[in-house]
Amino acid sequence: MAGQSRVVILGAGESGVGAAKLAQQQGFDVFVSDFGVITDHYKAALKKLSIAFESEKHTEDLILNADEVIKSPGIPATAAIIKKLVAKGISVISEIEFAKRYTNAKTICITGSNGKSTTSLLTYHILKKAGLNVGLAGNIGQSFAAQVATEHFDWYVLEISSFMLDDMFKFKADVAVLLNITPDHLDRYDYKLENYAASKMRIIQNQTGNDVFIYCADDEESLKALKNIKPQAKTYPFSITKKVETGAFLENDTIHILIEPNNELTMSISDLALQGKHNIYNSMASGIVAKVLELRNDSIRESMGDFKNIEHRLEHVAKISGIDFINDSKATNVNSTWYALESMSTDVILIMGGVDKGNDYNMLKDLVKSKVKAIVCLGKDNKRIHDAFEDDVDVIVNTFSADEAAQIAYHLAKRGDTVLLSPACASFDLFKNYEDRGNQFKAAVREL
Question: Where on this chain does ATP bind (predicted)?
């Protein structure tokens, strides 16, 4: 029909297919284009909705006639097709920006170099348990756009990456959380930390005095960035090294959270479900969100004490001879493995491999160079992993069972290292599914 706006979606993963669903529902002429291979699951979803798509190519005639383009966070601004769109003055936005136009739900947006997923899941758990009508989306779970199309939530907890923020312009977070800024993805930011930091600070763009900004007062880069950008929102810092007047701080192994006078939440760190220094920060951030929303102290305490991180997602299995074993079997694509490596603060022995879905391992290269001592391949055909990383790590070993992988990784690791199962691949060559792979790995670790 005449006058129907054309929306082109680049990338047919969770966010792209979700955006396609919402765009179609809103009456747009929708076309999806993916330069990589579209998985069968997402192909089926697009076919079911009768949405036109192409795989393994970008046909310029079908893309450069768009009124607006929604791009996957994984596509850099330097990609040829993006440059052409920008040159033509065609608006390029993220799925999050697009979806927010069609919902009145309030948003709690969580970003940071490390801890985003855990903090998002914990915040969602606290809100849901307190009886709020809340959804979870962004970098985690089901796409935000797909949920806006099919659900009616009052609140959303959104895990937001810097790549998403780069394509968000009019979007406003009602509650913004910045956990930390550490050197990361600098290849996307001209190798300048201040560019990456500026990207993270977009989490507070468009905020007003009615909104809330929560940040870590112990994080050097966040503080540096805040010297140049003054938040309009009410700010609540959290710290484990010093007392703060409003926000959260640690004293004698007790967390204190104070948003207004005479209503303080205190909780011993030994009662937290999530242990470890980085998780004190994550728990504080989630706790401040809960207090800002005026949830009851006993409800918040209970949720912070009984939270379970998703099984097979950065799940701590055991510590043996000073070596941590982490099961991230749910990481069936390169993106997820990238997040897992990003969150590691020690040297890593990485167990990866399986059914390779046309993976582009380039995005892992910098993290592998900086953090990975050895790669243990777990799969029938590991050639592409060898080809991708042979220049970046000294040791790449092939294994064909979870037992063998766990044993070899244990021998390659030394005290203080982390053995991380984060495959970046599907599991069907050696296992029933990713759960089976994770369970076999956990059993193998416990046998060590």
Answer: 112-118
Q: How many helices (H) and strands (E) does the chain have?
A: 17, 20
Whether 1 shows a pLDDT value over 60: the answer reads: no
* pLDDT score recorded for residue 336: 77
Any residues with CB less than 8 A from the CB of 97 and at least 6 apart, and which? 167, 168, 169, 170, 171
Asked if 231 and 213 count as a contact pair (C-beta separation under 8 A), the reply is yes
CB atoms within 10 A of CB 36: 17
Give the mean pLDDT of the chain. Answer: 92
Query: Do residues 327 and 352 touch, judged by C-beta distance below 8 A?
Result: no
What does the block give as tokens for 175?
A: 């509650």
Sequence ranges of the binding site? 112-118
Provide φ and ψ at 101, rounded to 5°.
-60, -25
pLDDT tens digits, one per residue of 413-440:
999 999 999 999 988 889 989 999 999 9
CA 254 to chain centre: 29
**349 has pLDDT over 80:** yes
Could you tell me which CATH class the domain 97-306 is placed in? alpha beta
CATH number of 6-93: 3.40.50.720
Residues annotated as binding site for ATP?
112-118
Helix or strand run (H / E) with residue 305: helix 297-306
Alpha-carbon distance of 151 to 252, in angstroms, equals 44
Give the closest residue to 352 by CA, choosing from 320, 387, 328, 321: 328
Domain 315-447 has CATH 3.90.190.20: yes
Name the DSSP class of 2: T
Phi then psi for 362, rounded to 5 degrees?
-55, -40
Query: Hey, where are the domains in the chain?
Result: 6-93, 97-306, 315-447
Which pLDDT tens digit goes with each residue over 24-75?
A: 999 999 999 999 999 999 999 999 999 999 999 999 999 999 999 999 988 9
Phi, psi of 153 (to 5 degrees): -95, 150
pLDDT-based confidence at 2, cuts 50/70/90?
Answer: very low
